[in-house]
Model the fold of this input.
Amino acid sequence: MPVLSSSDFDAIVLSMKVALTATLISLPFGFLYAYLMTFFRFRAKVLLEVLVNLPLTLPPVVMGYLLLLALGNGGWLAPLLEPLGVRLIFTWKAAVLASALVGFPLLVRSIRIAMESIDPRLVQASRTLGASSLDSLATVILPMSRTGIVAGSSLMFARSMGEFGATIIVAGSIPGVTRTIPLAIYDYAGAPGEERAALLLCGIAIAISTVVLLVHESLARKLGRK
Done:
């Protein structure tokens, strides 16, 4: 029976760390974006919609390469990052950024669907009773968007756990540093005699994804009953 090595444990922990961090960082921005797109009208709305959903249609490798051009040495954002001593390329933070970029559209789509199902009369009633826009957001829109927030967060977490194309470009596959479960499986798949190790990690990835989906369904039902 194959046994997990220390580098495999590192890959599992790192994958969950990257997925959780990417989801938590993206959640407030995703909620704000969904709120703006649902309840406001402005000229650049269509353009913003296209830009945010572009990662769904582009190959992840393309997104990774664009991130490399932007964040690498001499990249587009180098004049801003280098004076601050910020280094992202080939660190776990780059994996977080890649996962956040690729999974963000899934997060905002779920939240928008929940917001669009809110009866506008409820928001209008809160405003009539003297609530400010911020009060209506906190007391009406946010509570009634809970199912979308849970669904979007679960989808983004699962998507981040499986991110490969963009991550391998901007973070590489450094054991114990940037190698996540998908990257470890890729390395094992190309190494003779490592089929069992690859299958074991595949099984662990399936188990984690299953748990995430079960938790998502359980929370969605509880929130739906409330």
User: Anything to note?
Assistant: The longest helix spans residues 6-39.
